[in-house]
C-alpha cells in the first residue's frame, strides 16, 4: 500500500475533516470510515486534489452517518483503566486479567476464565504488560497462521496466485493485501471470534482476484461467504468495543 498523504478539508461541516489520502491505480475514488472515526480516501493517480475534495464533500452525509454509528458503539462500554482485574478477549471469549506475585520466571497463561500473569511483584505493571503482550503476540502468530492456511486450503478452487502471510500490528485495519500477493493480518484479530477472523481472511483472499472493492469483488464475497455482511457488522461492533479495554499490544 503506497504511503498516505494528509488532506485537510476546511469546507467540511460541522467541523473540518482530516482525510488520509492514498493514490493508486484504481479508476474511482473509494472512501472508508474506520471505527476510530478516521477517514481514508483512495483515489486514482490522475485525480486532482480539488476533484477529490469535491467528491468527499458530496459524501459528507454518508461520512457523518458512519462516524455517528461508530461513536454510538464506543459509548456502549465504559473504559477500564486498571490492568489487574481488567477484562480482555481471546478468540471471542472474555477473560479477566489476574496479576499475581511469583518468584519463578513463568509466562502468562489461560486458567479457566482468567489470563494469569505472574510477576516478581504484584505492583510491577510494566512487567505484566510485557508478558501479556508476549503471550498475545505468540498466540496471534501461531493461530492466525494456522487459520489462514485452513481457509486458504478450503478455497483452492479459486486458483489464487501465490500468497505470503504477515502478522503485523496496524492502526486502523484488520487486514490488507498487496498487488504482489502479501496478505497482512492484524494480531489484534486473535481477540475476535474465529468466524470473524475467517471473514477478514476471505476478504483479503478475494482481493487477490479483485484488487478494488468492485462489483465483481462483492459478488465473489457473496459466493464464497454468503453471510459476510453479518460478520462484518459483528467485527465493526467488536472493534469499537475493544477501545474500552486495555490493548494487549
Biggest β-sheet: count, sense, barrel? 4 strands, mixed
Give the low-pLDDT segments: none
Shape summary: globular
Strand content: 15-25%
CATH topology of the largest domain: Zincin-like
**Got a strand count?**
11
Instruction: Specify the CATH architecture of the largest domain.
Output: 2-Layer Sandwich
Distance between the amino and carboxyl termini:
23 Å
Q: Identify the CATH class of the largest domain.
A: Alpha Beta
Helical content band: 25-40%
Q: Helix segment count? A: 6
The CATH fourth-level homologous superfamily of the largest domain: Metalloproteases ("zincins"), catalytic domain
Domain YgjP-like metallopeptidase: 27-237
Organism: Rubritalea squalenifaciens DSM 18772
Pfam families: YgjP-like
Protein name: YgjP-like metallopeptidase domain-containing protein
Describe the structure.
With 249 residues, the chain is of the alpha/beta class. It has two domains: 5-74, no CATH class; 87-242, Metalloproteases ("zincins"), catalytic domain (Zincin-like, 2-Layer Sandwich). Helix content is 38%, strand content 22%. The protein has six helices and eleven strands. Strands 1-2-4-3 form a four-stranded mixed sheet. A four-stranded mixed sheet has the order 5-6-8-7, covered by helices on one side. It has a three-stranded mixed sheet with strand order 9-11-10, with helices on one face. The longest helix is centred in the middle third of the chain and has 29 residues, at 125-153. Pfam families: YgjP-like.
Amino acid at each position: 500500500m503506497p504511503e498516505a498523504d494528509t488532506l485537510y478539508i476546511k469546507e467540511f461541516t460541522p467541523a473540518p475533516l482530516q482525510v488520509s489520502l492514498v493514490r493508486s491505480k484504481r479508476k474511482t475514488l473509494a472512501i472508508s470510515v474506520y471505527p476510530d472515526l478516521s477517514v481514508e480516501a483512495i483515489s486514482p493517480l490522475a485525480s486532482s486534489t480539488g476533484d477529490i475534495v469535491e467528491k468527499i464533500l458530496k459524501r459528507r452525509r454518508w461520512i457523518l452517518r458512519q462516524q455517528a454509528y461508530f461513536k454510538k458503539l464506543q459509548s456502549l462500554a465504559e473504559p477500564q483503566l486498571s490492568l489487574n482485574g481488567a477484562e480482555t478477549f481471546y478468540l471471542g471469549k472474555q477473560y479477566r486479567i489476574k496479576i499475581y506475585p511469583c518468584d519463578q520466571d513463568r509466562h502468562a497463561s489461560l486458567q479457566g476464565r482468567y489470563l494469569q500473569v505472574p510477576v516478581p511483584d504484584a505492583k510491577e505493571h510494566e512487567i505484566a504488560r510485557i508478558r501479556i503482550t508476549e503471550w498475545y503476540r505468540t498466540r496471534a502468530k501461531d493461530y492466525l497462521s494456522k487459520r489462514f492456511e485452513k481457509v486458504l486450503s478450503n478455497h483452492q478452487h479459486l486458483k489464487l496466485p501465490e500468497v505470503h502471510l504477515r502478522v503485523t500490528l496496524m492502526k486502523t485495519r484488520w487486514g490488507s493485501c498487496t498487488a504482489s500477493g502479501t496478505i497482512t493480518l492484524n494480531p489484534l484479530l486473535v481477540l475476535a471470534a474465529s468466524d470473524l477472523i475467517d471473514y477478514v481472511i476471505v476478504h483479503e483472499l478475494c482481493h487477490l482476484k479483485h484488487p478494488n472493492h468492485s462489483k465483481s469483488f462483492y459478488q465473489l464475497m457473496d459466493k464464497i461467504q454468503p453471510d459476510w455482511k453479518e460478520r462484518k457488522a459483528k467485527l465493526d461492533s467488536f472493534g469499537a468495543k475493544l477501545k474500552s479495554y486495555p490493548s494487549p499490544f
